[in-house]
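Suppose a classmate hands you a notebook page containing two proteins, each written out with its sequence and a corresponding row of structure tokens. How would you begin to make sense of it? This section walks through that situation. The first entry is reproduced here exactly as it would appear on such a page.
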Amino acid sequence: MNMKNPLLEFTDKGIYCSVAKVYLDPWRAVDKAIISHGHADHSRWGHKQYITHHRNVPIISHRLGEINVTGKEWGETFSINNVKFSLHPAGHIIGSSQVRVEHKGEVWVFTGDYKTENDGISTPYEPIKCHTFITECTFGLPAFKWTPQQEVFENINQWWEENKSEGKTSILFGYSLGKAQRLLKYLDTDIGKIYTHGAIENMTQVLRPLVDFPETTLITKETKKEELLGNIVLAPPSAHGSTWIRKMVPYVTASASGWMTFRGARRRRAIDKGFVLSDHCDWQGLLSSIEATGAEKIICTHGYTEIFSRFLREQGYDARTEETQYGDEEDNTVPDETATLEKQTS
């Protein structure tokens, strides 16, 4: 590979394929953008043309409004200026894709965000052979090791049942796109009713044609707190501490996030209970995914990039880091504990 003219390059607008004149998940307005998934840091407003998986079309149309968008199938090859592109399941959220780029026998794969555990609602992650692999490493520390989701959901439903027995409302925080629907899918409606914050209800309604979700009830001004007692409320993290939530006393709160691995994350956010559940890869998931690609060159983007790329180099990979403007939609980091874990990995 000629590093002076790489197939994909990192620019101030985003990841750019100069041969095709197309960007992948650009963070500034461009003419043509291939979008990996619907989270706001990867699908931004203002591009003249959007290309994405067809399951992501209703998501970004809901979030961005009137846009010029084309939907593609998994594995469907489309050429732009003789560069071949195709989308492959990333397993992160519904409609999330990896982007495969091929030109003159050279293959790159951009993961966007991804996870290897099959959550039952997203199309499961599919390893793609390539020469260069652009990977996130949001949870790129050995301390992150996920418990199988079935066990996590059993714990969540048990928590809800215990709260009900004490006459309290259960409030469960999760990001409005992806995490909230994953939680919703596995809540046990034999325990009680599922109430939703407006942001979660609106997105869930967009996704209902794609997934069989349990029934939900939107909380409105007319909803009385007596109706909520013993039931569960799904809300975005931003609702915590708001006047909206203070009307629900007595309640118990919980958050579902990979960051709940940190004991201090729950304490600092004044959350009663933390469930470790992430829509990203854990440490082992990242390593196994990279190995499965057969790639020799690894580019680490958002997350623990320096630590993770250094570890990969020690394993014999040609690994480096690149700056992007992607974040973590479930970011609940606790600085002092993060620093401690980084020292342990060094």
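The notebook's second entry, a different protein, reads as follows.
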Amino acid sequence: MKKIIWLLVLWWMAFTACSPKGTPPAGPVVLSHAGKDASCPYITKDGEGRTVISWVEKDSTADTGMMCYAVSNDNGYTFSDPVKIETTAGVYPHAENLPKLLFRPDGGVIALFGVEQHDPRNKYAGKVMYAVSADSGRTWGEAQSLVTDAAGYDQRYFDMALLPDGEAAAIWLDNRKDTKAEGSTLYWAVTAGGKGFQAAKPIAQTVCQCCRTRLYVAGNGDVHVAYRDIINDSIRDMVHQVSVDGGRSFSEPVRISADNWVVNGCPHTGPALTANKHGLHFAWFTMGGGQGVFYAGSTDNGKTYTQKESLSKAPMAKHPQIVTIPDDRVVIVWDEPVKWQGNFRSRVGIAIKSPEGQTITSRALTADSVYAAYPVAGALDGNTVLVAYTRKGEIVYERVSI
């Protein structure tokens, strides 16, 4: 009998050790190092299709930090120990100016991030840097400036995406412009093999100076950009442009929604964009024609858009992120203020939409008692998304069944 019991114990130990996918973590899991101030989560895929979360860590008394990342080998149930990217030391953590990783099919990895510029022409100026690994992240080259033109002293609010040919494209806001109108210029550049980003060129002007930009490459190779434009020197609404020739030319900007939001300031919350077989899907924050996070879709590649739809009952819901999952449903996450026991907190909201854009469900993801902000989402499979966010100086993630 004792032998049978012992064999059963050994069998159970082996079964539980080999079956992590059968027992998902209960609730959010802390990913960042203990004792560090962590922020800026970002979700992507590596060259093998594994889910990767990156973020920034710093000492609580420091202004700058370093990028870290972790890789999941079991579809988002667990992640590797965090890996530091030493050559990103000095990154300035800013969840709108979000540091990002891009994995190329040839094993190369690019880390794109912002630092302080310390330029006498603008004491608040920033600079976009990038570091490259040629061996899947095992070693990294020294960080280098995205812009080498001496006239470009302020760059920020960047995005990066993989092109069909395996090269990486980047967009960013830049001080260089040839108009007296308010706003920054949106620049575009593409890597050229091992030579880094080359042939930078402006593709839009009068862009809101401190809202994040969005670069998205659709399955058919079309390149989409979205940003908050400054229209007629006063209206700050979201616009979209598309390139059907790999970035050589872009269409004229078209407003996603005529919110007509007149504001003399920077909202610090940019657009989110994804696509599926039914078209384009956008989410954004505005205080024009309503307040909060809204959604609109386009079935004609951005020429026209559906009437905007409010996603949250909270009037100041902000910072939306959006992703398409394998069955073509669309998932949107955001943060929103909430009052708990007399104090204001922030919680994460989530909406699930059908492939055509109809809302299936919309609800709070995190408890009102914690402060959860700046969520990001990544597709795991047709029934699950991974959501990561900042919680009290920690990066946490959770698998969400949809």
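A careful reader of the second entry would note: Residues 1-22 have pLDDT under 50 and may be disordered.
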